[in-house]
Amino acid sequence: MNISFTSAALAGLLLAATAADASAWTRYGTVNTARGTYTVNGSGGCAGGVCSFNRTVRGPYGGTVTRSGTIVQTGPGQYSYQGRVTGPYGGTITRSGTVVVAPPY
Q1: Which of 54, 51, 85, 53 is nearest to 71 (CA)?
Q2: pLDDT tens digits for 21-42?
Q3: Alpha-carbon span 77 to 73, nearest angstrom
């Protein structure tokens, strides 16, 4: 089962990484594995200083994993994020925090 979710997660990462326009994007894709076909739908965009994304991965046996989140720049080189992942059996994980990006020397 971990292999299935790993494949689906990899597909989601690849799908999100292909977004060319940061202001608004949508993506759709499929990944074929030995266990079946996974369908990935993603969307996101930025408006008013807030960037957000949504992604849904549907597995070959009907399981669905959804992931969503927002990122806000709170200062120079400082960002705040919130995210939520809901698994195929209804369990939810939420994450939040702050990231500080230091300029290179």
Answers
A1: 51
A2: 458 999 999 999 999 999 999 9
A3: 8
Query: Does residue 71 belong to any structural domain of this protein?
Result: yes
Domain contains 105: no
Considering the domain boundaries, does residue 36 fall inside one? Answer: yes
CATH number of 31's domain: 3.30.1300
Instruction: Look at residue 16 and tell me if it is in a domain.
Output: yes
Contact (Cβ atoms closer than 8 angstroms) between residue 46 and residue 66: no
How many domains are contained in the chain?
Answer: 1
pTM above 0.85, yes or no: no
The per-residue pLDDT for 64 is: 95
Domain extent at residue 47: 2-100
* 82, 73 Cβ separation under 8 angstroms: no
Q: What is the average per-residue pLDDT within 82-101?
A: 94
Region of 48 on the Ramachandran plot (φ > 0 left; ψ -120 to 50 alpha; else beta)? left
E strand spans, 7-49: 24-33, 36-47
